Records
---
Amino acid sequence: MKMLMSSAALAMALVAPAAAETLVIGVATAQTGALAPFDAPVMEGVRLAVDEINAAGGIGGNTKIELIEKDVRSDAAQTSIAAQELVDQNVSVLILPCDADPALAAIGIVASAEIPAISTCASSPTLPEIGGDYMFANFPGDNVQATVSASWAFDQGHRSAYIVYSPDTQYTTMPLYFEEVFTKLGGTMSGRDTYTIGQQDFSAIATRIAALDPQPDVVMTSAYEPDFPSFLKALRAAGVESQVIGSDGIDSPTTFSLGAAAEGLVFTTAGHATEESPLAAFNARYEARYGKPPETIFNAVGYDLIKVLEAAVLAAGSTDAKALRDAIANLEGVQGATSVITYKGTNGMPIREVALVRVSNGERELIAQLMPDAALIPAPRMQ
Amino acid sequence: MMTSPRIHLFASTLAIVVLAVVAVLLAGSISAASERILTVFFISLIGVAGIGIYSGNSGILTFGHLSFMAIGAYAASILTLPAPMKAATLPNLPGWLAATQLGLVPATLVAVLLTAVFAAISGWAVKRLEGSAAVIATLGLLIIVHGVIIGWRDVTRGAQSFFGVPRETGVWTAAIGVVLALVIARLYRDSVSGLRLRAGREDPIAAGAVGIRVPRERLIAWVLSAAVMALAGALLAHFLGAFSAKKFYFVDTFLLLAMLIVGGMTTVTGAITGAVVITVVTELLRRLESGFSVGGLEIPPVLGTAQIGIGLIILFAMFRKADGLAGLKEWEERVFRASLPRPASARGPAIAEPEEEEGQIPLRAENLTMRFGGLTAVSHVSLEVGPGEIVGLIGPNGSGKTTCLNMLSGVLVPSEGTIRRGDMDLTGLSAPQFAEMGIARTFQNIRLFSDLTVYQNVLVAALSTRRGHRARPRAYSALERLGLLDKAGEDAGTLSYGDQRRVEIARALACQPSILFLDEPAAGMNREETEDLMSRLRGLASDMGIGILLVDHDLHLINKLCARIIVLNEGHLIAEGKPEEIRNNPAVIEAYLGRAGAVEAETGTEIETGR
């Protein structure tokens, strides 16, 4: 009897460390600066998911999640410093900023420390390609989004397009993928223009487009705040009536408050809350927690990220960094708030659905939620 | 050649090496994280030392030096970036550059050289600017280089981050860099060029008068400091592994300048002090930035706490210690107060005598005229000063005496007229060229290099004239002649008025002049001091054959010293002759005393003294 008790105690002692195990997540995101409009809402979703999981006893009922957060001020050098500090604190996984550039600032650290890293919402398909085995994305790729919007435009009967892009970041070159798909489908280009991030004045570009005869059927850009509102207003003020297509960067409250200028605007994003969808359920829980409905899809994207990590810990059966990396790379069919997410068979750019949304009477209207034809998706490349 | 005692440089270098090694060992024993903080600190300190080389010695604040750091970072990184990474991220790079892949050391050397070349070009434009014009020009440089980096996408990736740089800067690499940078900064400060530049910082006009070409020294410091900044940039890039143009812009400029200003711009001790203080405070505040609780009181996170904290420290430092925490002296200068050794070659009285041939030729000015806009300050004045004679130049206030001296010493270029010395036409030469021709001077309102010691004041003059030949014995001899040997180690600015006047004369004498202009040398001296000065001046003329042109209001002094007196009034030469002739000249009496005085003078009163 005594022996039985002691062996039970021994068994408990052996189990105890496992029960007390914690998944330490290093969070190096941009809470200030140009990327804050994306990373700040992502973190709300992340915290919601972490609190839900911890309230239920942790991942699998025994692994609590701990976040160590650092602000990287939307700056590459700061990201590198913060990532290194987090690695020093023995985190199991790193969360990196929304844009590919600051996220890539941490590749050297991620690779040498052999710790998996996920960018909150970077959508450049070159991110995992350059970042290597330990770098993952958490958003539909630029090339995938552009394929969805270009295919839709062509199906609508649009045959000529004008693109406006900025070589300042990978993300703002998405229109070049759009051009590739659109011309492959048989459309023609009316022209292309470049801008500088933070340019403010778009009247020259608007005037150039307005002077075209015939007018392009579609104007496509992946500009975001504060450039996109200025661009759109300048375009409409110049009398251009063409269909404007944007991307996930404009999935923000600002876009829906632009009034008549934004009416009919179409953009791609990570998901849409149809009735009884997981996203609608997430939105309800978000409102209960924060006392306001979510204003952007990036809240739910943050929730997705933690769901991916939860699934990876369950699959790996541990919080060991290397085991987690392998587990993430082999995840299949993880149910997130926005979509079903699969990493298996990719280089780290997840397969997930793209929602095509139209601004209609200042509200969001779902056009389609789909995975595009894989044959049409352009190969990732540095622009 | 170094201008300070060996013990100073030795103590300083030793301390720098020991501190760096101890810091590395200490950080290594704590954690990897503290090693990284130390690495960042070392790199910042290299930058601070780099800015200090220019700003500290020239006195011109620079906002532009982060641009050199940027050039160093980008140049070195492009060279070390692995070729496959280059092909992926910089596809439009020229072929030869895309194929190049160097190690950190050769890449850094190339980057430093490249930056130095760029600095030599930009420095050419900046070196002649004074005061706020120079500061604004450096700010312009920062903005221009930033703009070029953003625009030159094929090479720099524009505004996107530059990543994939091998992270090869470890704490020991940074330690070697910081020792190198600090020792360079320390040695430059006391090099001939550094001493000249500091003299120029204290008083550019006086510096010119003792033969210093201030713009040239500025250019040297500019290029050297740019090279040190490039080293900081290269090391930083290889520490971070990724950076963007933003890293080398206003925020970091502010940070490094804060370190330099808080610590004290003019010394290496100050650079280290400031970097330590700011780093410690930033690290503390950065930890508080994310919020904390004190005794149950929750302090919410405040972003930007670190920046606000640094701002407050600067305000505090400026308010309480305007010269920075370390002040104007290096620590070793305070600890080892060096005595002035008598140079072996200084024996014998002939040491500061002017060069033989030049000493025989008089200085002749003809028809000197100076117009400032509509005002004619000096009109058609001709005068001559010969070897070994003491000539008095007198006249009421505003009669053009000082303007005359300024033209005769190259401070002003005459509107008309010529200045000749034998066959040599000196008209239009610069002040340093006049000094090189054996013409030295003092100033009416004392222009000493106040924060330099008496010895340094004199030495820098000796070093900057006569090609610096036998500078130490000349400086020693000049101090000896004016009875200043016991004050050699004191700061010139702390001396009494009379002593300051004597230092100015000693400084002029150290230029080994054949002609000496003294502008009110006895002003502010008591009777005893004046008598002493008079005998010393007589000695200069009689023993050494120096021709002296003496301006003073003390007519007693003038009458006793001068064999010949020239009188100016309202810019015109109104009289010239022996003292007794001048005393009785009605035009002179009228100029000094007005018409009534002239009548009185005719009845027998003489002008005896102006005091």
Note: Chain B touches chain A at residues 31-33, 36, 40, 85, 88-89, 91, 153, 158-167, 240-244, 246-247, 289-290, 303 (CB under 8 Å).
---
Amino acid sequence: MSAPAKHSDVLAAADDLRRRTLVEMTQPLERLIYLASTRDYNTGLYYHHGLAMRFSEEAACEALAGCHREAFEELVDASLEELVHELQAYLKSTRVAPNDFIVAWKGLEPYRVAVPVGIDSLSSELVFSNLKVALAILEARLMARTQPGASRHPSPVQ
Amino acid sequence: MIGLLLYLLVGIGLLVFLWMLARRKGAPVEGCGQQFVEARQALRTLQLGLLPENLIERIFDPEDFRYVTAASPGEIGELFLRERKRISLMWVRRVRCEIRNLMQFHLDYSRLHAKLSLLTEIRLALDFTFLLLACRALRLLLYLRGPYGARAMVRMLTAAAGRVCAASEKSLAFLNPPALESLRRDSAGDGAAI
């Protein structure tokens, strides 16, 4: 990752990423988690093999970073109601038992490591806070709906 | 002999004083680049991080609270109010901090300028004073009445902060000439970086 990527390449890579990969993910939360997972924890750089092959590593990295920021900004703008729907849709897409998901998300708060670089701390705190409340709402709904739905797997967060 | 001792003591005292001055964490030189960079940073934080309309709308819009109270039990409503109060207090604290940074910059900057418009300076000073007082009052109101108890004050504060930002933008305009921005964009084309 040496020379900066050409602006036109970054735009083309971002467009490609949106059309081929992100189009499947309708919710910004889903996109946020996916894009954060393409980032190396040690270097902070994004990597996507297909995109890097088609364009360049630098262009792919910048395109992924841009889309990651976009997804996060959508979450900042989302109302609590929208966030609850997003969380519900994301929960469905993961195919994890709802109780396990809620326990893991409440305990590990995985969304905290999914914040793009350069985001103001107030915006990220607002999103974390809304996600915390959205999780509580979802949990209350689950508890109200059914008790025997609890998973028999050991809880990942103890 | 006594005179010699006296001179020695005065000498040692002066040396200690000089040593303390040398060790003192250097205050930035007036008009140095550091001040401009810090002011620019404060301005950017205010304009992009703290004052965007959508962010303020998100924090202080009571629609979220209505949704929570309608859709979930009481304790979640309490959790929501606690969280939103924390965020709104954080917002006002950060705004105050950045406003103080900008005010410091204007104080230093005005000393360097011979041609000052008295009217503009008075207006700016009033705006800064109002903003700092409003931040304190808003903090108290948010603390006592919660995040939805002072919406009019939030609007007033953001409008005044916007005015101060616009004035600061003019003072710092030379740091981001449009020509440099276009050069930076074009430079990526042949691999050169600015």
Note: The interface with chain B takes residues 3-8, 76-77, 79-81, 84, 120, 122-123, 125-126, 129-130, 132-133, 136-137, 140-141 of chain A (CB under 8 Å).
---
Amino acid sequence: MEIVQQIINGISLGSIYALIALGYTMVYGIIKLINFAHGDVFMVGAFVGFYSITVMGLSFFPALLLAMIICAIFGVLIERIAYKPLRNATRIAALITAIGVSLFIEYGTIYVRGAQPEAYPAGVLPSKSFEILGVTINSQSILILGVSVALMIILQFIVHKTKTGKAMRAVSYDAEAARLMGINVDNTISATFAIGSALAGAAGVIFGIYYVKIEPLMGIIPGLKAFVAAVLGGIGIIPGAMVGGLVLGVVESLVSAVGYSLWRDGVAFVVLILILIFRPSGLFGKNIREKV
Amino acid sequence: MKKRKVAGIFLSLMLSAGMMAGCGGAKDTGSAGSGGQGASGDTIKIGANLELSGGTASYGQSAGQGIDLAVEEINKNGGINGKKLEVVKVDNKSDPAESTNAAIKLTSQEKVTAIIGPATSGAVLAESDIATDSKTVVITPSGTNTQITVGEDGKVKDYMFRTCFIDPFQGTVAANFASKELKVSNAAIFADNASDYAKGLAAAFEKTFTGNGGKIVAKEAYVAKDTDFRATLTRIKAANPDFIFIPGYYEEVGLIIKQAREMGIQAPLMGGDGWDSPTLVELAGKDALNNAYTIAHYASDDPDPKIKDFVKAFEAKYSGKSPNGFNALGYDSVYFLADGLKRAGDLEPVKIKDALAQTKDLPLVSGKFTVDEQHNPIKAATILKYENGTQKFAAKINP
């Protein structure tokens, strides 16, 4: 039964990676930019959630919603201020800017509130453990998995059934042609940043509730892992990011399960190297051509 | 093309040579502090190299509060041999490299007579060479690693002292408490693999516990900054231990305790003084901490009158805040130093270190204090039990 327990541990972890990876993959799909500041939007979301719960006294869902809205605005601001002026610059210039934005957000947060960690208050969500066939499942992990899956379904709906989604797909396929067809490319790119950042904000709140501890540099490692997840699934492909996140979470849990917990982070990056060598387009990279 | 390559190599060589020269320069200014000791006029300058921000800021800030209180009291009672104490605080950001910089600043720019701090072992080790080179006495309030006072070659470092007991002692106390008081026969160890502190405790615990006839059924490790311990805890749970020893710092330990209890691990949990922070209670939650023990330098509900006076003075200065172990050790460090300075007579570094090394039966808040030949104090340890999120005095274990 230990193995089932480990897989459940991995899925909980993986669903958070997946939520962050979605933002990476969407932004890459549309402007071919690895937005390294994405992990820090995740951190900002965690702090917005924390302050809205502790200071404003909101419960879980309003806090989640508020974090998503603020992160969406924050994401659009980052895009408008830092990336838009570089739209026609080289890709390496945009990439370096992204790293700069990331450091700016991290140390800006430390400047504003200090580097000390903060603990999410207990009791925001009921925490109850129950055992099924020797496997202990916490009610929080079920709810978190449920929220993650629900957000992913909403995202699929937005991308495939709405006009904005259609515009996003068109811009990602060919920005010039989309512009000729009368699509407002700038607004579409902003919408992509808004949606991706909102998902990262949601991931931040979920992370805070599940793992309790949040701090200004908390976005770095999950951000990098989510990047690995996005590449694993095939960067630019939405279902790929979901599957990539879950696979990475389960792989990490299984590495710990066989007693190599200290190798866990290393293995995540070995996965990245292997994927880049043997299947650079990712697990989902071949058949699905629709990219957002 | 070729020319450019050669030029590139030349440039990079120049660059690295420049950097090396820069490093050498920094070192020179570091040791230039030697001899420049002493105080100007009627004050004695004491440096405090502390974790005022960063991951272990809670320790450094607490020690700083204790230091401030002690200095205030000493100055109010006429200072040391007629001279007032003056504290210069420098933040090392909980980072060993920054701790080295802070020590350089204190010894070469501020020219302090002695340094108190940092609070964590790694950061103290990072300043020890600079302090020794510049002949500045260092007293760490809470750095428990053995190598702080004794080098890898087995030689005692002349200028390094500490106010707390050492790592192996904490591990030994925990093992004796587990096998003699709780009477458990098998235990698991879950230690921070990235910290010398946790590894030292784990090794001593294992040695004493197996020496007492117990069995270690699982030995797992984590790395600082991890947030997900469920996979490893699942392995520990499968080994079914009666007792789990978790040496580490509060940031990770808080999460480990929470996740362990969520997974249905009910065994008693125990750790060292790295647990001692209110953040631990926030992270783990009050309920999860029931049936958990920690080793402390002192307990604020200890009935000893000396401790009662300290608690009263501390609460008066910090608006009712009850002092924790790091507060007490910071406070004691100043009195330990003050006692040494008094007996040394003047501010000659050699005399100060000799006076400190000869400290005997000095009554301090964290116990009656004697320095042994390895510059470690000999004193009692206190076991605390968590009840509803607060620490209660459980037992006192003598060396």
Note: Residues 206 and 241 of chain A are 18 Å apart (CA to CA).
